[in-house]
Amino acid sequence: MRIVSGLLKGRQLHSPESSKTRPTTDKLRSAVFSILSDIKEYPDILDAFAGTGALGIEAYSRGASHIDFIDKDISSLKINTAMLDKGAYNIYRGDYLKICAALKRQYDLIIFDPPYNLYKTDEILATVYKFNLLKNDGIILYEEFYKTEFRLDENFEITDERRYGDTIIRFLRYKE
Predict the structure, then answer these.
(1) How do residues 43-67 score in pLDDT, each as one tens digit?
(2) Region Disordered: start and end of each range (predicted)?
(3) Which letter, b or e, does each residue of 2-28 get, where b requires 16 or more Cβ atoms within 10 Å of its Cβ?
């Protein structure tokens, strides 16, 4: 697994040998950021359920200025974020739903790639709304197994949806 484009293009990412982590493939990351087109429009990013941090690090490589990573297991994150500037990121170890209460920041882009069938989508999205984590013009990127039941929180709308093999990517924003 490697960084696909930008400043860190070609750099290798450490991936754990455990089967609990499903890093987003190079091909899928390339497709996602092609859809987002100019990541510089999204300088502040939250990469929740970050795993290896591949999506957040890819965003940094393409011009994002700050990324907050959240995951219960930060071993791969510690290794992979070593290639980033020290002030460009924070790593939070623990449960997403608990950590969000302590975050005092709004994000241009929030990335969700939760463990399959462990969290309910509407619960995750309700937390974004409750703690005002997304800027008014911000975007949510939600990656999950295509057969997972997707329950949309009433405060959000889907702007785009794409399927890549067994993975579905949804882009959401606040309802207008």
Answers:
(1) 899 999 999 999 999 999 988 999 9
(2) 1-24
(3) ebbbbebeeeebebeeeeebbbbebeb
